[in-house]
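Worked problem 6 (solution included).
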Amino acid sequence: MAFTYTDKDGKRTVRTGKAYKATVNAAVVVGDLLAPANADTSSTFKLADDSTRVKAVAVALEASTAAGEEISVADWAELATQDTVGTNGTVTEVYFAASSDFLGAPLYLGESGKPSSAQGTSGQQIGILTHRKRILVNPGVYSQPTDYTNLITDPGDAGAIPVTASGSVALVTAGAETRTLADPTFIGQTISLYLKTDGGNCVVTSASDVTNTSGENVMTFADVGDSVILIAIEDGSDLEWRQLQNDGAALS
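Solution. The predicted structure is:
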């Protein structure tokens, strides 16, 4: 069934998960979807954005007027519209959705931290419609971190593999080549690496060890079909990759 979500300013929180303080690097409003600003500072957030495949992990409970301000955020929140009152006292009800839209309709990550009813590039579901005037935003429950259908472009020889989203990278070589892989950007992020075309070995060097054994951060793909699947975990205060599956790739 078709569904069109219309974002509204002036959202209010109905209920939330446990709130905590965090610094934001941009102006935000209540209900904006947030992502870690970098891999090693989990208390600093930026606006999540489907167009750049920066997935949401939290929701703003307070507004900020500029970068560098500290606000309350939470892993999830139920948000409602606020009706407007005219100068003559007339109340105008404000809705996210039409009367014909069905409860439980999925919401996805849109641009600049806003929810959307359209499934975009990242395909991250961040919540559902619970009422014409209410939405439940919970990226950690509704999103699919193991989204291997998201195709990440192979950067080519000596290139850096993007780590802004989960997905799959089809490695193609025309000789002996290398790639680098930075640390992940959110907990539960996954990435599938596989050699699609073998013109020579592809050596991928990860910024973090991919096993719990010190020094195994280099993956060598020598034959078509060699593959590795990695998942993001917390190692103390750091986000690091760990191997979920390995079929044929040599580790060193």
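Discussion: The mean pLDDT is 89.
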